[in-house]
């Protein structure tokens, strides 16, 4: 439909840049050049999000519910490397089953699950025991955030997530549970 270049041009111009296209002809490919103005180096740089050191980290018991198997496995391994006790579930029912066998301090859950949703899961699990909840989802509209907060999720992260940010939020949960 030819919208790609028009959309790109609009975005580049919104950032006060220029975009040019060049081609040597049919079947020769194209080169697109984007030029953006730079600014003076800022006096104070904002440091990137950092995670607490391993020594300062509170050992938390985490129930991770994510239906995408690769994401589930990767996030489980990354959180375990940071010293957390993580049990992973791929769906609503397996999360409920795990929660009946083991106690958790933190629920990190996707909102869209194949056999239910994270909203109902938080409702079910927090009715048994208070949990620090972090919604981890692709849904980031105001209504989605409001719904997740209404059922008890303290935070709502939209994918893709920053692992250091997630780690900081887990430690925030640890501080609130210890208070």
Quick structural gist:
The chain is α/β, with parallel strands linked by helices and 179 residues long.
The average pLDDT score comes to 86
Pattern of helices and strands: HEEEHEHEEEHEHEH
Strand order of the largest sheet: 4-3-5-8-9
Number of helices: 6
Provide the β-strand percentage band.
15-25%
Question: Outline, from the CA principal axes?
Answer: elongated
Please provide a written account of the structure.
Helix 3 runs parallel beside helix 4 (118-126). Helix content is 39%, strand content 22%. The strands form three sheets. A five-stranded parallel β-sheet has the order 4-3-5-8-9, with helices on both faces. A two-stranded antiparallel ribbon has the order 1-2. The chain has 179 residues and is an alpha/beta fold. It is elongated and about 65 Å long.
Please supply descriptive tags for the structure shown above:
5-stranded parallel sheet, about 180 residues, alpha/beta, elongated, 9 strands
What's the layout of helices and strands?
Layout: H1 3-14, E1 18-22, E2 31-35, E3 61-65, H2 69-81, E4 85-89, H3 92-101, E5 106-109, E6 112-113, E7 116-117, H4 118-126, E8 132-137, H5 142-150, E9 153-158, H6 163-178
Parallel strand pairs: 3-4, 3-5, 5-8, 8-9
Antiparallel strand pairs: 1-2, 6-7
């Amino acid at each position: 439909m030819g919208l790609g270049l028009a959309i790109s041009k609009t975005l580049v111009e919104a950032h006060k840049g220029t975009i040019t296209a060049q081609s040597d002809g049919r079947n020769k490919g194209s080169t697109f050049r984007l030029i953006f103005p730079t600014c003076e180096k800022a006096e104070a740089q904002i440091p990137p999000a950092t995670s607490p050191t391993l020594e300062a980290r509170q050992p938390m018991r985490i129930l991770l519910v994510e239906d995408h198997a690769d994401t589930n496995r990767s996030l489980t391994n990354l959180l375990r490397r940071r010293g957390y006790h993580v049990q992973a579930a791929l769906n609503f029912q397996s999360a409920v089953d795990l929660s009946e066998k083991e106690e958790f301090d933190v629920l990190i859950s996707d909102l869209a699950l194949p056999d239910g949703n994270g909203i109902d899961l938080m409702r079910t699990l927090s009715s048994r025991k208070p949990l620090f909840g972090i919604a981890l989802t692709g849904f980031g509209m105001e209504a989605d955030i409001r719904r997740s907060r209404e059922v008890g999720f303290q935070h709502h992260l939209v994918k893709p997530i920053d692992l250091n940010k997630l780690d900081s939020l887990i430690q925030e949960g640890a501080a609130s549970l210890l208070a």
